[in-house]
Each structure stands twice: as structure tokens, then as C-alpha cells.
Design brief:
Number of helices: 10
Pfam families: HTH_18
Number of domains: 2
InterPro entries: AraC_XylS_family_regulators, Homeodomain-like_sf, HTH_AraC
Organism: Mycolicibacterium fluoranthenivorans
Helix content: 25-40%
Radius of gyration: 18 Å
Protein name: AraC-type DNA-binding protein
GO molecular function, one term: sequence-specific DNA binding
Largest sheet: 8 strands, mixed
Amino acid sequence: MPSPVPAALPQTCSPTVWLWPGQALYAGPALGLDPHSGSAWCLAVGVDGPLTVTVGTQRVVTRTALIPPRVTHHLALDGRLVTCYLDPASERSASCRLRFTQFQGAVGIDHERRDALLTLPQDDGAAARWRDAAAPAAIHPIDARIKMAAKQIRDDPAVSIPAGEMAAASGLSESRFLHLFRQETGCSLRRYRLWSRLIRAGTELAAGRNLTTAAAEAGFASPSHLADRFKTTFGLSATQLLATGLTIRTP
């Protein structure tokens, strides 16, 4: 029996993704996402009304939610959505966490600047201001050794530098390095490399590359490998997302 054709995504507004080094911001219609588990911190905002985050048997209803890496969740809402994905090794992810004083299980609720986030960015300047309100930079620096290792991965995510080599460069044993990396970022070294590759693939697509070239440049073994990792991380396929007429911006 042939596989069902995915339903078209809503076209109630023009969807846009902004990409900065280690960060991504989506603004547009709710996308009917499947349950997924990301490699980055995800700030989700229901612009027109509350969103529902389901983690296991727990349901959280809120206008703003902060979802940690490695937490499988389902995100549902009617209307428009803004999601901001924050590099777990960045000061911005740390500062965003500090702006949530309430948590239901693993999920943060009610960002302290909620009202400022209930808008849909329409241009590069508005997107940067939204990100800065959600997650100001340079609030809580992470360990300098982990910051350097994370930058090395971001600079060339297609290269798989062995953990032992990175640990030695940091002056740490491999086990201590991996523990500290997870402690500082909230995700494993493997997941961080995946996140960096997804961001690089998005940047390549924004530059006009096709999926095959984007996958190769980002370090994925094949376009299907990129497609699988994309859907697992974001809850829908890259093909579905691109079919909305998505605009990808790299300001």
C-alpha cells in the first residue's frame, strides 16, 4: 500500500526562518508537528492563544514554554507560532532559562517578558529584537573549555573530531570532558554535533543549495540521513516545511 501523502501545512501567514550562528527562529503558522526531541533549547510562543506541550502523560497549557534538549514532546496550538532554538552551549540559552521562574516537570512556563514575545517578527530587525528579548546575550558564560570545543564543532560540523582529541585539547580526561559538556550545555556531544549540522544544512539551503548538497556540506551521510534527523528534531520533514513557501534568512 502506498504511503499517505502528508497533509499540506496551513498558509495563514508567510513562514520565515532566521538563522544565526547556533540559533534558529521560526515565525509562521502552527505546523501540525509530530512528537519530537531536539538537540537545542526550544522556546515556543503561541502568538494568538495558548499552546499545549505534552511530555509523556503531562500536559502543559501556556503562552510561552521552554523545552530542554532531549525531551520528547508534542507541541499543539491553533494560530501562529514563534519558536526559537538556542544553541545549548551559548550564553543565550542560559539567559533564557533564567527568565523562567516556573516549571511544570521539565518545561518552563511564563517567560518574564511574555507580552513582548506575543508578536510575529516580520523582518530581520524585528527577529533580532525578538531574540534579544527572549534570550539576551552574555548573562551567564559557560565553562571556557566547553565554549571553545562547541565553537570548534560549529565552525566545521562536517568534521567528526573524536571526543578524546577534544578532551586532550581541553586538558581533561575524555570522561570528564563528556560529563562537563553535558553539564554545561544540557545535551551530549553527539547531539550538539547533530544540532550544528542541522544549522549548517539550513544555511546551505538559504544560499540556494539543494538538499543533496546541503546534506553533504553539513556532514550528513546522505539526503535521507538529513531528512530523518530533521524530522526527529523538529517534528516534520524538511520537504513539508519547504513546501509552505518558507523563506530562510541569514541576517
